[in-house]
């Protein structure tokens, strides 16, 4: 009887442009597609768990159409793979690569263990345009600054074209006794807009890409910083879970660029953001410690404040700064936050409240649908100033001015803070300044909090703290 092959799905929950799956289908062996809930992996939050569940249901249905069932397991991957190899008489495991420290170490151990037993483990690139070890600076090392990194990427050959989805898989007729049912992961009532706003799954990803090309791409460069403009792609959760690949996005954008009249500026800007994602993975692969440690060691002496109460108010969206609070409420209700608002809310936690970026990173990780082992860490370290090519610490966002500039008619802020809906635009981002006009403005006392910290005071305090680590 011919041997079988085990396909381990991880962050590549799709059939198209999945070179590992295509390879598995081409071996002609019986294939067992699996997903493992690994208790040692960093636990994901409620919204991301919901997304993964929906995506796995979708993937299972698609796999069934072409001949194979998706099986679920829980436990240490090495042990589960050992049991499955023996039950199914498998001589090959296949997966798409991951790049964070935990996954790299785990996969290495698995490869080593099975190669000693004569079982092959084949891994493929499904989630990056360029493998992190292929992009090197002049001295042969990894990049620490984005622009030369991206220039170097662009100087390489074009990213590979996406590969086709397998037409058919030879499923296995046997059913092993180790399987578990797919765990249900309901959303709590705080996350009331998640299902309304999102459609997980591979077909949801293509629809989102089409929508972006039709409605967002042309205005991307001009309006990507405006949270109410829907000018960005909102592809991040799909990229996070691998329902779409950057190669597919790249190839679609190249296609529309050559057939439709998009400006070079808007296309280049959008592709550069895909480039920032590549850069985050490049960094986390080469410096896995950055997941928990400052990339710039000078920040190890930063005098962070322990302030549970302020942290809680920030999480709830009750800091008294409307744009910050709108962002935090968007996150809780939708599982997403616009990029500019991520920068502002993160900056507020780190610089106005002087709370360690790791506390913010953890909260985003717990709440974001797109919570990403590379982008979230890199984003937080970028805002803190402790990361690679980061924003300088002394550049401190003024949450009032940011609101006035990037939510100029207040519709984003008012959507998430309806208690401010009656305010005129001139008062919206500093409602406390209108105290004397409150009656006139119909501002209900107690409905929306006063600022938990005064901006100028907070700014000076942060700059002084920064001076301490520069000395
Ligand atoms: C504090 C902080 C935390 C963040 N955490 C995450 C996270 O957990 N997961 C995540 O995917 N992104 C994260 N980002 C990056 C960025 O905010 C999101 O990728 C973006 O808002 C997603 O929306 P979009 O798909 O509409 O982006 P678009 O503007 O349409 O960009 C297209 C794609 O490019 C990538 N991208 C865009 N901006 C960035 C960026 N600054 N850094 C890296 N990649 C980028 C994303 O994959 C995105 O889907 C974080 C940024 C900050 C400042």
TrEMBL record:
Binds 1 FAD per subunit. The record marks 304, 357, 380 as: Electron transfer via tryptophanyl radical. It catalyses: cyclobutadipyrimidine (in DNA) = 2 pyrimidine residues (in DNA). The keyword Flavoprotein applies. One of its GO terms (molecular function) is DNA binding. Gene3D superfamilies: 1.25.40.80, DNA Cyclobutane Dipyrimidine Photolyase, subunit A, domain 3 (1.10.579.10), HUPs (3.40.50.620). Its EC number is 4.1.99.3. InterPro entries: Crypto/Photolyase_FAD-like_sf, Crypto/Photolyase_N_sf, Cryptochr/Photolyase_FAD-bd, Cryptochrome/DNA_photolyase_1, DNA_photolyase_1_CS_C, DNA_photolyase_N, Rossmann-like_a/b/a_fold. GO terms for cellular component: ribosome. The keyword Flavoprotein applies. Its cofactor is (6R)-5,10-methylene-5,6,7,8-tetrahydrofolate; FAD. Keywords: Chromophore, FAD, Flavoprotein, Ribonucleoprotein, Ribosomal protein. FAD binds at residues 220, 232-236, 270. GO terms for biological process: photoreactive repair; response to light stimulus. It holds the Pfam family DNA_photolyase. Residues 3-129 form the Photolyase/cryptochrome alpha/beta domain. Belongs to the DNA photolyase family. This is Deoxyribodipyrimidine photo-lyase. It comes from Candidatus Micropelagius thuwalensis. The lineage of its organism: Bacteria, Pseudomonadati, Pseudomonadota, Alphaproteobacteria, PS1 clade.
């Amino acid at each position: 009887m011919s041997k079988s092959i085990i396909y381990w799905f991880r962050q590549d929950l799709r059939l198209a442009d999945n070179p590992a799956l295509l390879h598995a289908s081409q071996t002609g062996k019986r294939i067992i597609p699996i997903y493992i809930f690994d208790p040692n992996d960093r636990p994901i939050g409620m919204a991301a768990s919901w997304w993964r569940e929906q995506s796995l249901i979708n993937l299972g249905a698609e796999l069934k159409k072409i001949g194979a069932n998706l099986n679920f397991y829980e436990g240490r991957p090495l042990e589960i793979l050992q049991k499955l190899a023996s039950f199914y008489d498998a001589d090959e495991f296949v997966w798409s690569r991951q790049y964070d420290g935990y996954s790299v170490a785990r996969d290495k151990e698995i490869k080593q263990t099975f190669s000693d037993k004569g079982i092959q483990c084949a891994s493929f690139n499904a989630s990056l345009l360029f493998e992190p070890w292929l992009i090197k600076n002049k001295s042969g090392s990894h990049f620490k600054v984005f622009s030369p990194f991206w220039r170097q990427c662009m100087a390489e050959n074009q990213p590979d074209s996406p590969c086709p989805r397998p037409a058919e898989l030879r499923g296995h007729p046997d059913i092993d006794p180790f399987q578990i049912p797919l765990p249900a992961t309901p959303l709590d009532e705080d996350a009331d807009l998640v299902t309304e706003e999102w459609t997980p799954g591979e077909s949801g990803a293509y629809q989102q890409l089409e929508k972006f090309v039709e409605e967002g791409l042309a205005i991307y460069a001009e309006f990507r910083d405006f949270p109410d403009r829907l000018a960005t792609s909102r592809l991040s959760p799909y990229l996070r879970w691998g329902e779409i690949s950057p190669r597919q996005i790249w190839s679609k954008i190249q296609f529309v660029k050559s057939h439709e009249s998009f400006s070079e500026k808007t296309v280049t800007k959008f592709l550069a953001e895909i480039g920032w994602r590549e850069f985050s993975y490049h960094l986390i692969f080469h410096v896995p410690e950055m997941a928990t440690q400052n990339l710039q060691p000078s920040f190890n002496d930063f005098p962070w404040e322990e302030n549970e109460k302020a942290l809680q108010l920030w999480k709830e969206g009750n800091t008294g700064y409307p744009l910050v609070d709108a962002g935090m409420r968007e996150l809780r209700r939708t599982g997403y936050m616009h990029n500019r608002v991520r920068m502002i809310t993160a900056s507020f936690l780190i610089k106005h409240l002087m709370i360690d970026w790791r506390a913010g990173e953890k909260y985003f990780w717990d709440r974001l649908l797109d919570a990403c082992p590379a982008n979230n860490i890199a984003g937080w370290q970028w805002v803190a100033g402790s990361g690679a090519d980061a924003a300088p610490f002394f550049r401190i966002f003024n949450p009032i001015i940011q609101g006035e500039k990037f939510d100029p008619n207040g519709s984003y802020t008012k959507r998430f803070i309806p208690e401010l809906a009656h305010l005129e635009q001139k008062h919206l981002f500093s409602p406390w300044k209108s105290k004397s006009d409150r009656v006139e403005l119909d501002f209900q006392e107690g409905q929306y909090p006063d600022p938990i910290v005064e901006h100028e005071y907070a700014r000076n305090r942060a700059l002084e703290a920064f001076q301490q680590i520069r000395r």
